[in-house]
Design brief:
By secondary structure, the chain is of the alpha/beta class. Helices cover about 30% and strands about 25% of the residues.
Length: about 725
């Protein structure tokens, strides 16, 4: 008698907290393979999590798998377990976790084989062609880009030069100026290795410590100011890992993964490097993912989602700028890539290096408790001195357009000496408020609890929360007055003021208004680096990555934003940002100066910055966290709800709170439901409920039972709700 087909437990991409059972086809299917299954009236691609002899449902009710997509499992047991842990820890539906972790093409059921990627090059005719004769600007810019590039360019590289690249390249091919080739999926870019420098004593000690525990889970907190040589430590630790035939996973924050960083890795290692970031085409992503999974890429360098790349021979994990908020996904599966990476290292029993100039308080506390080993790089590698940090007491200084006289004088001095200045202001637009001087009316967003921001360049008022925009209001809707003016400063206003003050200066601005397309940020940073600009004004976009040897002045405008915020992470983030932007100054032989404009010069955060005393800041901030009972002294989860009215959102949370309280898990407290700090956003009302516990275990015990109850109830249908485990902001 033929054996009855096995039952498969399948993770299917639905918002439900469970797997679904299907009947397996004749030859057995292994765990980790993808299957196409009927689901309601649809057909979905799921992943087999386990097989069993039987189901809780009667066999007659089970449906058959329609198609097996992988002969050999797509994911190893180990990856299946990692994603299972992720679903448990973040209390997120398992099917959605798998969907989040897989490249889109695999999610859609595409075969797990790498296609070569298409690359474009100039033909002889293209090389001889006169760019100026082409009518379409997009064709001109592509032709110029291809002429400049040392090697053929991929689709995503072309997309950086023109939004209309696809049509333009077709046209160029028709004219015989451009040809396309298939390039094998992943290539070794360099065979000329850059020489590794001789490490200084601190770097050597760090490398030796990491190398001493090759097959052990040990987390290292590598704390070193910008330019202290952390990346060099990573590179040499990776070299040792590769020498042992193992793979290294390197995570970097989204905006820090620049072509320069990739180039630095490629120049050092003559091995294929799988680079994973949001700018890839889906074909490129699949190629990199498969190269990592098949062990063909010894190094995987990527942003947040690369934390889920399969690595059969993982030997080392590195998380650069481990404090960076971009490691936390803010929607869907709200995971922290850093924390997933730590868990991965512990599963794989390999070392993990968490590097930062200003580590998160959570990691610092782990180091203090000796769970992480602290490695310090106290000096700058190039022997450059630390910048001198000075506070400008804005209570005593008159500022005009946000720039105080001492700051202006310092900028003028830099211009006179041919040196560069960076000005950091975390607010884009011309001014954050558009105000009536007759009656004090402030232009509000109709859909958010927020003011509209005045953008002078486009003569618009814009909401930075929901994206609404309208022409500038010329007559006050409240008193009819006509004297409406901008109040306060954003980057656009600073740029304008600088242009008036220093008409000769070359000024660049970096924020989301001036940097919209890929490659533009790079181009501006490059211009600064190459000395084509004198002053760079920008938001936190400029705090990352780059070093500018000729920058000798950093001005921090409006440093007080975040000092007395209701968000428990705000001071820490402010400190990290100022430290990071200060790190741009005086890297070479020229000493740098940092000027911070503040109305609160007595604040402990600034005292610590002036003395370059990270530990003093940590003492202050940890004491504050302990007093308020926030992480790392407690564990948090935030239940958010969003609805058409305040009452509906709050009613759901009150109901949820009652459910949670009824679970009676001791050691966990549920706050009263409250409107979110910015309650209305995009016309929806938002409310939240904070769950707090002094230990992790009871918190997760409660959350596990709770989310299932919430997901299965009718009450939840009136709202959009989500659970955020270890939230990084409480908004
Ligand atoms: P971080 O990652 O901490 O910002 P980097 O590793 O990028 O620091 O080092 C900063 C600069 O110093 C780089 O130009 C790097 O090449 C150089 N550098 C790092 N370590 C050494 C060393 N031991 N000897 C000489 N130069 C070094
Ligand atoms: Zn008015
Ligand atoms: Zn709005």
């Amino acid at each position: 008698m033929p054996k009855a087909p096995a039952v498969l437990h399948v993770a299917v991409p639905t918002p439900l907290y469970r797997t679904f059972d299907y009947l397996a086809p004749a030859p057995a299917i292994a765990v980790g393979a993808r299957v196409r299954v009927p689901f309601g009236r649809r057909e979905l691609v799921g992943v087999v999590l386990s097989t069993a002899g039987d189901s809780e449902l009667p066999r007659a009710k089970l449906k058959h798998v329609r198609q097996v997509l992988d002969d050999t499992p797509l994911l190893s047991q180990d990856m299946v377990a990692l994603l299972g842990w992720t679903a448990d820890y973040y209390h997120h539906p398992i099917g959605e976790v798998f969907a989040t972790a897989l490249p889109v093409l695999l999610r859609q059921g595409r075969a797990a084989t790498a296609q070569g990627e298409r690359v474009y090059r100039l033909t002889d005719a293209g090389r001889a062609a006169d760019v100026a004769t082409l009518r379409a600007a997009s064709q001109r810019s592509l032709l110029a880009a291809l002429a400049r590039a040392p090697e053929p360019l991929t689709a995503s590289a072309l997309a950086e030069h023109s939004a209309a690249w696809s049509r333009a390249v077709q046209a160029l091919m028709k004219k015989g100026l451009v040809a396309a080739d298939e390039r094998p999926c992943l290539t070794v870019h360099s065979v000329v290795c850059s020489e590794a420098p001789v490490l200084n004593a601190a770097q050597q000690a760090a490398c030796a410590a990491i190398a001493a525990t090759p097959d052990t889970f040990q987390a290292y907190l590598l704390h070193g100011i910008t330019g202290s040589g952390k990346t060099e430590v990573y590179l040499q630790a990776i070299a040792a890992t590769l020498a042992r035939g193992r793979q290294a996973l390197v995570l970097v924050p989204e905006i820090a993964l620049t072509p320069q960083v990739v180039a630095r890795f490629r120049a050092r290692f003559a091995v294929p490097i799988a680079v994973l970031h949001s700018g890839l085409t889906e074909t490129e992503r699949l190629c990199a993912w498969l190269a990592a999974r098949d062990g063909l890429a010894p190094i995987v360098l990527g942003t947040r989602s690369a934390a889920f790349t399969p690595l059969p021979k993982l030997g080392l994990v590195i998380v650069d700028e481990e404090h960076d908020a971009s490691y936390k996904q803010q929607d869907g599966l709200r995971y922290s890539a850093r924390d997933v990476a730590v868990y991965r290292a512990s599963r794989a029993k390999v070392p993990i290096v968490l590097g930062s100039a200003s580590p998160s308080l959570e990691s610092v506390q782990h180091a203090r408790a000796k769970r992480y080993r602290l490695l310090e790089l106290p000096e700058r590698a190039g022997a450059a001195a630390l910048p001198e940090v000075q506070l400008l007491d804005m209570r005593r200084l008159k500022s005009h357009d946000g720039l105080s006289p001492p700051l202006r004088a310092s900028i003028a001095a830099r211009l006179a000496r041919g040196e560069q200045t960076l000005l950091f202001l975390n607010r884009r637009g011309f001014s954050p408020v558009w105000m009536c001087h007759g009656c004090g009316w402030l232009a509000p967003c109709a859909r958010c609890d927020a003011r509209l921001v005045y953008h002078r360049g486009t003569r618009q008022l814009r909401c930075h929360h929901c994206g609404a925009e309208q022409p500038v209001v010329e007559a006050c809707p409240s008193c009819g007055g006509a004297e409406l003016k901008p109040l306060g400063e954003g980057t656009e206003r600073i740029e304008t003021a600088l242009t008036e003050l220093f008409p000769q200066a070359r000024i660049e601005r970096i924020d989301r208004d001036t940097v919209r397309r890929k490659g533009e940020l790079e181009a501006k940073l490059e211009a600064m680096h190459a000395g084509h600009a004198d002053i760079l004004v920008g938001t936190q976009m400029l705090t990352k990555g780059h070093d500018f040897p000729n920058v000798t002045l950093v001005g921090v405008l409006n440093a007080d934003q975040g000092l007395y915020s209701s968000d428990f992470h705000a001071t820490e983030r402010l400190f990290q940002q100022i430290l990071q932007v200060s790190g741009r100054a005086g890297r070479a032989d020229k000493p740098g100066q940092v000027l911070i404009q503040t109305w609160h010069p007595q604040h402990a955060l600034f005292a610590a910055l002036v003395r370059h005393d990270f530990n003093a800041f940590v003492e202050y901030a940890l004491a504050e966290r302990r007093e308020t009972d926030f992480p790392p002294f407690s564990y948090l989860a935030l239940l958010r709800a969003e609805a058409a009215t305040r009452e509906v959102a709050l009613r759901f949370l009150r109901w949820a709170r009652a459910q949670g309280t009824a679970l009676a898990v001791s050691g966990v407290s549920l706050s009263e439901p409250l409107p979110a700090p910015m309650e209305r956003r995009g016309g929806r009302f938002r409310a939240q409920l904070l769950v707090q516990a002094s230990e992790r275990r009871p918190l997760h015990r409660l959350l596990g039972a709770w989310v299932r109850a919430l997901s299965e109830t009718r009450e939840a249908r009136a709202v959009r709700w989500s659970l955020d485990v270890d939230p990084v902001d409480l908004y």
